[in-house]
Amino acid sequence: MISWITNPQHWTGSDAIPLLIGQHLAYSAVALAIAVLIGFPIGLYVGHTRRGVVMVAGTANALRALPSLGLIVLLVILFGPVFASDLAFLIPCVIVLVLLAVPPIMTNTYAGIAAVDPAAVDAARGMGYSSLGVLLHVELPCALPLIFSGLRSATLQVISTATIAAYVSLGGLGRLIIDGLAQRDYFEMVAGAVLVGALTLVVDLLIALASRFTLSRGLMR
Amino acid sequence: MITFKNVTKRYDNSTIAVDNLSLEAPKGKITIFVGPSGCGKTTSLRMINRLITPSSGTIMLDGQPTEAIDLARLRRKIGYVIQHAGLFPHLTVVQNIATTARLIGIAKKQALGIASELIERVGLDRTFANRYPWQLSGGQQQRVGVARALASDPEFMLMDEPFSAVDPVVRHQLQEEFLRLQRDIGKTIIMVTHDIDEALKLGDQVAVLRTGGILAQIASPQELLSKPADAFVADFVGRDRGYRYLGFVDATSSLAVAAEPAAPLGTEPSTARALTRDRWILVTNAAAQPMGWVDLDQQTGPIRESDLNLSGTLASQSGNLRQVLDAALSAPSGRGVIVGTSGALLGSVRLAEIVTAIESAKAVGMGARS
Ligand SMILES: Nc1ncnc2c1ncn2[C@@H]1O[C@H](COP(=O)(O)OP(=O)(O)OP(=O)(O)O)[C@@H](O)[C@H]1O
Ligand SMILES: [Mg+2]
Questions:
Q1: Would you kindly state where each structural domain of chain A is located, as residue ranges?
Q2: What is the CA radius of gyration of chain A?
């Protein structure tokens, strides 16, 4: 397996490992960015206003129950006639990953805001912070640890699930697993799995480091 | 001045939390809202900075109705201190305090300067500046909460049970510091408590509320003790109100302090016996401060610190009859020890003389300090 990875042949061409890693990260990054754009504001709004709590919890649970593989196949069948070229595969793939990433981001943002000490929020309102001021100066900074952990678990799930892109003829590290399976090249398959795992760990570590340096020491004990 | 004019608060479920409340909290004075749990104290307080909107009636700041003031401006004019301090956990002590100053538009650097001065003002060490709230005790957090409310130098202060989350010793300390602070800053303060002792100790004026949000009586502490308006107030003010009333009667004018013989530590029993005809002698330290009493009938060797009976309390020269009476009652000799401002011995007062002083104070009717 190691020799498979270190084999120079696998570092060039259309299936080169760096290229696959790049594709894999690109799908994941796009999906995460969209998921943050959707889940983060909803979580903030619901946490701050306490409106729609039940809806958020229900939606998150429903989304978690979706089978990624089944969904991507369904979406490819639906979108196939609509889009030309790779988009017919790319869009379904990103949608599936977004749906996977939204629940942890949304619910953790909401939970983080909801868990802020009510006395601190009350004091902030009484001092004369505007509603937005309370959110930006008190609730959001205090919720950051939980928000980061939501982002982390979303990232882990997205990177490991992004292998399904290859299932619908796209790139990414899933290629190694799918192709390896097709050619009964078990070393290639294992190499794919190991690379996905390693990538996940590295990205996770980076987020952990980033949160270490952004979070107030007052929130960590 | 804060004025309530026929203020009523009815919650959705039709509970009346505050019922037609009218009162005035005079400028520069401490007004206390006191009453049993659920009588509408917090509701009344939070209607002032409009965290709660009154159902009817008007609240005015210096004659201006609060509805006429922009909400953010209103709240920034009023310092607000709550029970568990409600500090911002992600900010350090000095940053927490600076927030109110920042809110009224003071530049960051200057706000932090104000904040670090206030740290000492409320009785904390400067080394606390860069700690986070979780690294503080409840009493220390409470002090930071007070400092934060003061940092914008508001005209008014609202305090909701600010000292209730701490143990009695720390509470006493915070109350003393608070009174000292208020003598300097002279803010118009409304404080909520359900502790009648705290109300009588801190208030220039005390408003007693009863269940249903009805004002039972508003009066000075001594008037509340000597002339409760009805059975509810009398009961709420408590059993020892006769004794506690003495806390408001000045002792200096009515009592003559007699010389009290004292022996320094290390005195031989024979020498000490020559100083007094009594069985008990007061022992002082090098600064002439009373340390305790010694029973000369029991004493065999030179007086050591471990021989001392420490039960006696001390009354200060400028104290009240309650302190003096307590000093006499608690001393094994039955003589209440009086000390000067530096803590040095001035003399003593006998129990009988104190009782006479109490009688004449009663006869005068209001021998009370205003
Ligand atoms: N948001 C609310 N909705 C409905 N009823 C409320 C609400 N807040 C308070 N009440 C009711 O109004 C009454 C007064 O409450 P308030 O909190 O002012 O009492 P309090 O005097 O501060 O009591 P405590 O000493 O226990 O703090 C109570 O009967 C309480 O149940
Ligand atoms: Mg209350």
A1: 20-220
A2: 20
